[in-house]
Amino acid sequence: MINQNISEFIKKHITKRAESFFEKDITDNYETLKSNIEGKSVLVIGGGGTIGSSYIKSILRFKPSKVVVIDTNENGLTELVRDVRSTQGLQAPETFITYPVNFGDPIFEKIYQFYKPFDIVANFAAHKHVRSEKDIFSIESMIQNNLFYAYRLLKLIEPDQPSHFFCVSTDKAANPVNIMGASKKLMEDLVMDFSHRMKCTTARFANVAFSNGSLLDGFIHRIMNRHPLAVPGDVKRYFVSPRESGDICMLACILGQSGDIYFPKLVPDQLTKFVDITESFLTDLGYTMDRCASEAEAKEKSQQLAHNAKAYPVYVFNSETSGEKLYEEFYTDAEEIDLETYNSLGVVKNAPVLSASTHNIADGIADLENLFSSGSIQKGEIVEILSKYIPTFDHIEKGLGLDQKM
């Protein structure tokens, strides 16, 4: 039985922070945040996930007048409403309404037209897993969601000129080695292109500890089912808490200048190995970690687990799947970085936009759409187009995906 307070576990063993990493910047900019959120109308797309729902809870502290939430996950929206209406200190506005629809579907535009104008539009709808490049069908779905629909959204809202538009990115967009990161890098270029016509910002940030569908979140479900755990022994990641993920997106959305890309000022000694978190998690549950050399060994030992067992089977492996970095980075050497304005945030300034005289983002979108409509295609053809528009894209192809592993 899992009896941990996950928020407290994150503070103690993962982020090692008692309060939000961004609390000082929120305090320092409180009046600006309040004046830009209080009484304002907000549209949140992808608001049923961990980051989107955390963003909603962050902005609700500043009392917007209307919040409309879109997400394909009906259950996630249900839990969001329950969470907001059950949390001390959060007050839902009179208009707080959720719709389980895809923002790429025609019904979304009807909803937008009915409720507009919006002062703030924030898009968190994204394929976020490296495992989404398992084959050409999953890749097409990912690029459609991360890029094509984002483009359609920007064109939809541009005539109404919201005061703030935010679209979430990922640390994997810096020097991308997987197609998910490349799709978000093109999304960043899309934001940069529109930033000359309306206020647009984005943010790259670390893994969100115990976010929905993450490796760590999976531990809870696996242990409840007495399944073995599986964890890479060589992979390090930066982590933020769910609360911190909402805070950085709120700060980037409201405080940023158009075209800014925000990231947390975490440093290399804050990188944490998944295997170390696993050991701490099991220790808190009263187990020692029983390292297994194979999936078969781990599964066999899990079948023999007694209710009073002292050791828990964990398959520890070295990363060998396509698109995996051993560590992440928030910016590249070619980018102009501001590390002085904020206590906890860095900002990529004046990010280069694809040159209209050679390749522009609309051309890239058209090339990808044409490829996907051409019939039988290969993964390599998708990588070739992405590399054409992202010269720093260095795809790691190992012929093995995460869906092929425990």
Descriptive account of the structure:
With 406 residues, the protein is α/β, with parallel strands linked by helices. The chain is built from 14 helices and 16 strands. The strands form four sheets. Strands 3-2-1-4-5-6-11-16-15 form a nine-stranded mixed β-sheet, sandwiched between helices. A three-stranded parallel β-sheet has the order 8-14-13. Strands 7-10 form a two-stranded parallel sheet. Helix 7 links the parallel strand 4 and strand 5. Helix 4 packs across helix 10 (242-255) and helix 7 (136-157) packs parallel to helix 8. The longest helix has 22 residues, at 136-157. The relative contact order is 0.14.
Which characteristics define this entry?
nine-stranded mixed sheet, 16 strands, alpha/beta, three-stranded parallel sheet, 406 residues, single chain
Strand content is 15-25%
Radius of gyration: 21 Å
| Count of discrete alpha- or pi-helical segments spanning 4 or more residues | 14
Give the neighbour order of strands across the main sheet: 3-2-1-4-5-6-11-16-15
Going by helix content, strand content and strand pairing, the class is alpha/beta
Quick one: overall form?
Answer: globular
User: Uncertain spans, ≥5 residues at pLDDT below 50?
Assistant: none
- Estimate the helix proportion, in percent: 25-40%
Spell the H/E element sequence.
HHHEHEHEHEHEHEEHEEEHEEHEHEEEHH
Mean pLDDT: 90
